[in-house]
TrEMBL record:
Gene responsible for this protein: Nsmce1
GO cellular component, as recorded: chromosome, telomeric region; nucleus; Smc5-Smc6 complex
Keywords attached to this entry: Chromosome, DNA damage, DNA recombination, DNA repair, Metal-binding, Nucleus, Telomere, Transferase, Ubl conjugation, Ubl conjugation pathway, Zinc, Zinc-finger
Group of enzyme by EC: transferase
GO MF term list: ubiquitin protein ligase activity; zinc ion binding
Record-annotated RING-type domain positions: 188-229
Function recorded in the entry: RING-type zinc finger-containing E3 ubiquitin ligase that assembles with melanoma antigen protein (MAGE) to catalyze the direct transfer of ubiquitin from E2 ubiquitin-conjugating enzyme to a specific substrate. Involved in maintenance of genome integrity, DNA damage response and DNA repair.
Name the UniProt record assigns to this protein: Non-structural maintenance of chromosomes element 1 homolog
Species this protein is from: Quiscalus mexicanus
Length: 237
């Protein structure tokens, strides 16, 4: 494959550096960055070749157990890119940035979100966990600050006091989540990526992202499950 054999240019290196320092980059920003890096380095640029450009970087990252991965935001369906360390699939990815007690709060928050019906956990429920941590108890004020940092660092997203996993977290931890929450974590029946903000069929148990539910049932007067054809009992968003 010619792409795999292609050499990394300064344009590729600059693109990778920015992606790594961003943590996660929205699709339109990644496309602008692709153009900027190619033009600065005076190498061939084609607006529809971002995935090929990334494939070349990935072929050179492979021996380092790293990869640029593309993920879709559960909120708005937009593409995002993040650099993933494949050698660390555990929450240990975060271990260098946070203390043990902060990581424990994150794990417990993740439990609440993934085990919830719709992929959200309220701040009240999360803060109630703060004084039950094994590492040591955390005051609510302290826990509020930690949650704020997780949102700033794009591991969690927050809307009206409800928390869910940020797209960055889903891209980086998909394998970890699928293997550690086998009974409840599921891939969306429509787009086949991990579904956190989702609805689950009461009859056969398949899950669909809220945005995929919205698209799939658009214009249907009596929504039925795409797998078992039973009536879809939720209000469609």
């Amino acid at each position: 494959n010619n792409l795999m054999a292609a050499q990394m240019t300064n344009a590729h290196r600059r693109f990778l550096q920015v992606l790594m320092s961003n943590g996660i980059t929205e699709g339109s920003e990644a496309r602008k960055l692709h153009q900027h890096c190619c033009e600065t380095d005076k190498v061939y640029y084609a607006h529809d070749k971002l995935d090929d450009f990334i494939s070349i970087i990935n072929s050179h990252l492979q021996p380092l157990f790293m990869q640029i991965r593309k993920g879709i935001s559960e909120d708005d369906g937009r593409a995002h890119y993040a650099v993933v360390n494949l050698a660390e699939t555990e929450v240990t990815k975060m271990a260098s940035d946070y203390t043990e007690i902060e990581l424990e709060l994150f794990r417990k928050t993740m439990d609440l979100i993934i085990l919830s019906e719709n992929g959200f956990a309220s701040s009240t429920d999360i803060l109630n966990l703060a004084d039950q941590l094994k590492t040591k108890k955390m005051k609510k004020k302290e826990a509020e600050q930690v949650l704020k940092v997780f949102v700033e660092d794009k591991w969690l997203s927050e809307k009206n006091g409800e928390y869910t996993l940020h797209t960055r977290c889903i891209i980086e931890m998909e394998q970890y989540i699928l293997s550690n929450y086998q009974d409840v974590a599921r891939k969306c029946n429509i787009c086949r990526s991990l579904a956190i903000q989702s609805q689950v069929c009461e009859s056969c148990g398949i899950g669909m992202h809220l945005r995929c539910v919205r698209k799939y049932f658009r214009g249907q007067t009596e929504p039925r499950c795409p797998k078992c054809n039973e009536f879809w009992s939720y209000d469609t968003p």
